[in-house]
Write a structure and sequence with these properties.
Isopropylmalate Dehydrogenase; 2 domains; eleven-stranded mixed β-sheet; 13 helices; globular
Length: 338
């Protein structure tokens, strides 16, 4: 059985390389057909691996000491650091030495690294950074997550590009979530088809008339968390603001719970009684549960994990990459465009 090979940027992210190495090590005990190439400082990686119980034959190290930090300017760093871990990881995929790349590092740098090394699928005008976010799951899917794209790769898009995002999101949701005909919504300021600017009105018409898209219609901001669609399409700037707002609300809820637990004895008893429900809520909004989300439009799988990812999130991000390859996501996107 041929192993699926994942190139892991082991130096990108707030908890690198510790989280990356430990996550990859843990993965080898769960997936026997997956090989991980750890791209980063060999000395640091080996030191961490010494204390790990894993299947070492499934791990390989590609040494580099160059890394791009979260505060580096992506364009400048890509030029000044040709051996940066995220660039070398993308190059492994470009040279067919790996099937996918995973990184929790600088988002802009990863997008540029993949764009520099990995070609887009033929016909794709712009790649799209996706995000998975929790919902109330009114559609009663197997999981409560919906997919949003774009959330930051592009500031503005035209109607053709937004339709391509819908096709890519449909292919990904169908392959990964096993939803036969994912419902697609267009994020807009009203539900009526005439709402929004000229681009959004035109996009609405094109989505409605496309036989390969199961179009729900416009989705307003207050409907996002209900889970009335599987895929939400929007421009990058809008998607990024919405995503950060969702993350902010989750963080506020978590902090309020902590404060309430410390404040009064009766609240403490109440929160203890609600502990089961609170744990389910934590699982719903915890990015470590889903690991990472793809940058769609490239000819190979590129998974962006959260910058604060720890061991479990990295392991799950690699699993997402592994499953995306198994389910031929890029090929299905190519077929949907044809």
């Amino acid at each position: 059985m041929k192993k699926i090979t994942i190139a892991l940027d082991s130096m990108g992210g707030d908890n690198a390389p510790d989280a990356q190495v430990k996550g990859a090590a843990q993965l080898t005990k769960e997936l026997s057909d997956c090989k991980v190439i750890l791209v980063g400082d060999e000395t640091q990686i080996k030191k961490i691996l010494q204390n790990q119980t894993c299947n070492y034959e499934q791990l390989e190290i590609l040494h580099t000491t160059e890394t791009i930090g979260n505060h580096d300017l992506p364009k400048t760093a890509i030029l000044e650091k040709p051996n940066a871990s995220v660039l070398l990881a993308a190059e492994l995929v470009a040279n067919k030495n790996a099937d996918a790349v995973v990184s929790s590092g600088n988002t802009g740098a990863m997008i540029l690294a993949c764009a520099k090394k990995i070609p887009r699928i033929q016909g794709i005008s712009k790649t799209a950074l996706t995000a998975v976010y929790p919902t109330q799951n009114q559609l009663q899917r197997k999981d409560r997550f919906a997919l949003m794209l774009d959330v930051g790769a592009n500031i503005h898009c035209n109607s053709e590009e937004l339709v391509q995002f819908a096709l890519m999101g449909t292919a990904y949701s169908s392959a990964i979530r096993k939803v036969q005909k994912p419902l697609v919504g267009l994020l807009n300021l009203g539900s009526e088809e005439h709402k929004g600017d000229e681009i959004l009105v035109k996009t609405f018409q094109e989505l409605r008339n496309n036989p390969n898209i199961n179009f729900y219609g416009n989705v307003e901001g207050n409907d996002l968390m209900k889970g009335i669609v599987d895929v939400v399409v929007c421009e990058g700037m809008l998607g990024n603001v919405v995503l950060k707002s969702v993350e902010g609300v989750a963080e506020v809820a978590k902090n309020l719970t902590k404060q309430a637990f410390k404040s009064r004895f009766l609240w403490k008893i109440g929160l203890t009684l609600l502990s089961g429900g609170l744990f389910q809520l934590k699982q719903a909004v915890d990015f470590e549960e889903y690991g990472g989300a793809p940058i769609l439009g490239f000819s190979n799988i590129c998974i962006k994990a959260h910058g604060r990812s720890k061991q479990r999130a990295i392991k799950n991000a690699i699993k997402v990459a592994h499953k995306s390859i198994q389910d031929n996501v890029c090929e299905k996107i190519r077929e949907s465009l044809e």
